[in-house]
Amino acid sequence: QVRMVEFGGGLVQAGGSLRLSCAASGRYFRVNTMAWYRQAPGKERVLVATITSGGSTNYADSVKGRFAISRDNAKNTVYLQMSSLEPEDTAVYYCNAAIQKYVSGLTDDYWGQGTQVTVSS
What percent of the chain has pLDDT over 70? Predict the structure, then answer.
């Protein structure tokens, strides 16, 4: 069974930093694009950042210059370094990975359990 397990999150003051991590576990052939999403109270889940297996990254405009996504392919782990945090960044953060379970199989989306990030003003 493939699982995505998240670590990190918590309470931080505005201007502070946090680092999230998320590791894929189980049996699979390959992990392709990995990403972070977030969902604020009463709002839809939105994309924060993506990173391909080759290391190409993409960010939502709201976090450009403040957040950095990275990955360790040997550990199948994705990270989100968040700096200059603002109260508007308060949300539950979810990791996501497109995982190919079998050599000849299709790619499916897998989600982490979510971790709360709260930024106080």
Answer: 100
Give the integer Cα–Cα distance in Å for 90 and 120. Answer: 8
| CA pair distance 48, 9, nearest whole angstrom | 15
For residue 36, the SS3 value is strand
User: What letter does residue 98 receive in the DSSP assignment?
Assistant: E
End-to-end CA distance of the chain: 41
The predicted-structure confidence for 46-91, as pLDDT tens digits, reads as follows: 999 999 999 999 999 999 999 999 999 999 999 999 999 999 999 9
What is the token pair recorded at 18?
């946090």
Which CA distances in Å does 14 have to 32, 84, 86, 117? 33, 7, 5, 12
